[in-house]
Amino acid sequence: MNWGQTDMLKVVRLRIMVMCAAVVVGSASVSAQADIDNTDTMIDSLTALLSDDIAPAQRLAVLEQISLNHYNVDSTEKYARMELALARQLRCGLEAANANRYLGWCCYHRDEYEKSCEYYREAINGYDSLGMRRELATGYYGLASALGVIGDDVMADDYYSRALTIYIDLRDTLSMAEIYRKKGYTSSHFHLYETAAGYFHRAYRLDSLCNDSAAIGEDIYMLGFNEFLKYRDFAEFEALDSARVRMLKAIGIENRHGDWQRRFVIVQDLMDVFMEIAKIQTGDERAAALDISRFYRDMVEEMLNVSSLSEDGVYLDLWQVNFFMINGRFNEALAVLKEVEKITNMLWHKEIRMCELMVDCYKELGDYKNALKYTNLRTMLDKETYKRDFAVKSTQTSANIDFERRMHQRELAAQHQKYMTRIAIISLLLMSALFVVILLGFLRKRKLSRELAVQKDEVLQKNNELNIRNEEILAQRDEIEKQRNSITRTNQAITASIKYAKHVQDAAVTSKEEMNRIFGDSLIYWRPMNIVSGDFYWAIEKGECKMIAVADCTGHGVPGAFMSMFGISTLNSITASIGPTNSAAEVLNQMRAKIIEELHQTSDSGEALESIDMAFCIIDAKQGLMHYAGANRPLLIARNGDIITCRPDRMPVGLHVIHNGPFTDNIIDIKPGDIIYMFTDGITDQFGTDDNQGTEKFTIVRLQNLLKDVSSLTFEQQAAAIGERIAEWRTLPDGTLSEQIDDQLLVGIKV
């Protein structure tokens, strides 16, 4: 496409975006129906443009907006195909990739998963060649979803991981959490419960940072569901109780947010959880658990009556089976199970549950042959959820073999008892028939020996298969060991370079000796997250005034360290070039202008902009005044046992999306003995709690209380007390420390 067509396409896109915004503003409403009406109105307006004789570039932009905003599968496919054909004709790579992604979405919702994969791969190739990283991550996510449905779980997990890498770089917290939930569900499906719990906890922490209550509820539910599956596999009662607590908490959240489908799923699982509790309880505890389970069962039935989810009625049948079995009505339970067995479209977990109940019923009725039959069927279904590339569950295979052995021993014991009874009766009635009885016993034993020999061969064959799998795992372990050694050597080289960079950064910041010279004494609590830091402090004495700054740059580690060096250099340049000034805001204003100019920041860059959060003070001790300007960083003053808080402007030093006005110069009276504290958010945002659950932030309120308690101590004692309190906050029940999430810096000076 030539330059003229490119300019024209940009103009058309802008005009269509304005038109779409006008439609939405003109008919705004808080209801979901109003949102649908607004979208329909916008699409109708765009569709009308296609009937006009418009330029190809303008037609392509209109088709892009229609395909993007249409929620009907058939209509989306129609306009996406038109967009794809025109984009290829005009050689517009971005629109062609978008059209392929829309077509992949359509095929996915039509259950045409192979075609969906093809379209998503075309979209991915287009985005990759154009360097569109966010769109590339969206393509990876769509392809992974389709691959997961068709059973290619290994490739699905790989593409989820690729999308996750991009979202981490883009700091897209919500998308990161969604992928962690996907990976957690896959791991849970393959019985990797500890791995699944790790993914769900990561999603929970990310959603907590965003304060997304609906997503937090889903994370808590998935943790409970994972515990419930773990209980089903290993009968760990602690896992069952954990599932109960988490699911009750999740349903409370969903009742507030009103997600009907997720609420329906949680209610079904609560029905099953309390039924399992009833099975292991007795007396009043069993009755109470049954009442609660029945309450949720009635809720499921009510929700089914107002929905089209008829296949989920199987849950009600399985609940009825459990109820009959708890009350000893095994024949009635078996009759219901036989009706459930006729349903051919059950999901895997429902069919597995049906087999487990069949085994329990037949065992209680003494029919061990059918019990063994459904044990083998359950084992076969369960094996379908195990993949070589995820894990080899040798312990469960051994448990299954042991179960079959014990079942066979019970069968032999029953047959032996029957045989002995016959011998006793025949001996009393007719001794002459002894030879016939002995002959029958001999034939029966020979038959049993043959059966045992066959079963022994089967066990040996299974053991050989396990040995082969173990050899494959050992080979993979050796390869992983080689890769780990290579990574270790690389990390050592990188760490050595970063440690040297630490010496450079330490030389750039104001030394402890210089701080003591300027202010008499000082408190410096500095804990970088990754050797080098994105936080820094700076001080200088100019005439009668003393200047000090504490700053938190974008990022941490090496990227943050580069930004901190740039910040120190900029402060030195500004304070050296300006004349005598008492305006802290003037310094921040000049620094922001310098950052925007040097880093070439523009409001239409579309990417995260580098910036610095900073507290800056100019102290004139002779006049008893302090000028303070804050960019997202507050100031605390300890005076006579109290803490005074000075609030900052809500914008950084750098280009901001919304706020770019001048900074406020706050003039504060200071008194001898006042202690001025400046700090970064790495301390207040650190996760941990007093009860060691690891889910709360330290917060500025706790920091204020801590400084209030230690302000009467020497600065050396204060630094030790602050370090001890934060370490105590991060300490987990097992004695380890929770992860440090950011650089930590606190500076104190005394007037």
User: Which percent bin holds the helix content?
Assistant: 55-70%
Count the beta strands: 12
Radius of gyration: 35 Å
Uncertain stretches of 5 or more adjacent residues? 1-34, 387-408
CATH superfamily of the domain at 513-750: PPM-type phosphatase domain
> How many helices does DSSP assign?
26
Q: Quick one: biggest sheet?
A: 5 strands, antiparallel
User: What is the fold named in CATH at topology level of the domain at 513-750?
Assistant: Phosphatase 2c, domain 1
Model description:
It is a single chain. The protein is an alpha+beta fold. The chain has helices at 3-26, 32-50, 56-69, 73-90, 93-109, 113-130, 133-149, 153-170, 173-189, 193-210, 213-234, 237-257, 260-280, 283-305, 314-326, 330-341, 348-364, 368-383, 394-429, 434-508, 512-519, 557-577, 584-598, 681-684, 699-710, 715-730; strands at 522-527, 535-542, 545-553, 612-620, 625-631, 635-639, 642-646, 666-669, 675-679, 687-688, 696-697, 744-750. A five-stranded antiparallel sheet has the order 1-12-9-6-7. The protein has a five-stranded antiparallel sheet with strand order 2-3-4-5-8, with helices on both faces. A hairpin with a 4-residue loop joins strand 4 (612-620) and strand 5 (625-631). It starts with a helix and ends with a strand.
Secondary structure: elements and pairs:
Layout: H1 3-26, H2 32-50, H3 56-69, H4 73-90, H5 93-109, H6 113-130, H7 133-149, H8 153-170, H9 173-189, H10 193-210, H11 213-234, H12 237-257, H13 260-280, H14 283-305, H15 314-326, H16 330-341, H17 348-364, H18 368-383, H19 394-429, H20 434-508, H21 512-519, E1 522-527, E2 535-542, E3 545-553, H22 557-577, H23 584-598, E4 612-620, E5 625-631, E6 635-639, E7 642-646, E8 666-669, E9 675-679, H24 681-684, E10 687-688, E11 696-697, H25 699-710, H26 715-730, E12 744-750
Antiparallel strand pairs: 1-12, 2-3, 3-4, 4-5, 5-8, 6-7, 6-9, 9-12, 10-11
